[in-house]
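Hey, can you fold this one?
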Amino acid sequence: MKKAEVGNIIEFREGLRGIVEKVNENSVIVDVTYMENYRELELEQKTVVNHKNYKIIE
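Sure. Predicted structure:
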């Protein structure tokens, strides 16, 4: 499995998308404000996603 890099756009948790800000050993920190409907979903600005739980979009 290819790990995301800083700046990649990933998809996780049934369609949520975000920009990778930091890559850790087992996870990435993602900025979800990338999504247009971010405020409507009432999400935190950043979240942690395990490498097993996302796919790289761009």
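Residues 9-56 form one domain. Let me know if you want another pass with a different chain boundary.
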